Amino acid sequence: MTRILYSLCGADAHRPFSPHAWKVVMALKHKGLEYTEQPTPFTQIPNLENGFSKTVPILRDGNELIRDSFDIAVYLDERYPDRPTLFGGEGGKALSRFVEGFSQTVVHGAIARIAIKSVHDTLGPADQAYFRSSREAIFGRSLEEVAADRQREIDTFAEKLKPVTHTLKFQPFLGGEAPLFADYILFGALQWLRVTDGADVLGKDGLLASWFERLLDLHDSAGRVVTAA
């Protein structure tokens, strides 16, 4: 069976950085499924699989095509129920939806403001033009103006993750004694920052830093295959 994960990269195809694709990398590793990763620049994504999706990740699993990281995780649990679960039941799926919302509404914005210039600088010329125009439209400011707030965002980042720190006082993972997709969602966001910018936003929070290190070590250190920026 042909299993391909389409992810996102800049000028260096060996440094995929999409937070959403990293969720799927960890999900596939969790399920013990073999795959080939195909990192793709922003401006080439519309050409993938006959224009199947405007964004990555995209998973081809034999004849099946699935977009969106959460939908991919649900598909993997339903398609391969004999392999380790990503959700541990409907309660875990509901938990993951909450963590997804928290990550995308609180964490992603902060990371974008920290790493926006670093991401831009990793891209090829065509992608730099696309990234600048699209992100400046979103923020209503130049990339340089957004990046001017970088240190403030770094200094206040751990504060945003206090609910996670509180949870980790009682258990080693968001999923409990072992990681679930909820862990991979937040991991994907922090891996995006690690790979593109490398800012130390967890250094003063021992619980968060230890949790992230445990995630990096999982699945034969899959998260460490790409080094920090």
Short description:
The chain has helices at residues 19-31, 69-79, 90-122, 125-139, 143-147, 150-160, 162-168, 181-196, 206-221; strands at 3-8, 36-40, 58-61, 64-67. The chain is of the alpha+beta class and 229 residues long. The protein has two domains: 3-79, Glutaredoxin, CATH 3.40.30; 90-223, Up-down Bundle (Glutathione S-transferase Yfyf (Class Pi), Chain A, domain 2), CATH 1.20.1050.
What do these coordinates show?
By secondary structure, the protein is α+β, with helices and mostly antiparallel strands. It has two domains: 3-79, 3-Layer(aba) Sandwich (Glutaredoxin), CATH 3.40.30.10; 90-223, Glutathione S-transferase Yfyf (Class Pi), Chain A, domain 2, CATH 1.20.1050.10. It is built from nine helices and four strands. It has a four-stranded mixed β-sheet, with helices on one face. Helix 1 links the parallel strand 1 and strand 2 (36-40). The longest helix has 33 residues, at 90-122.
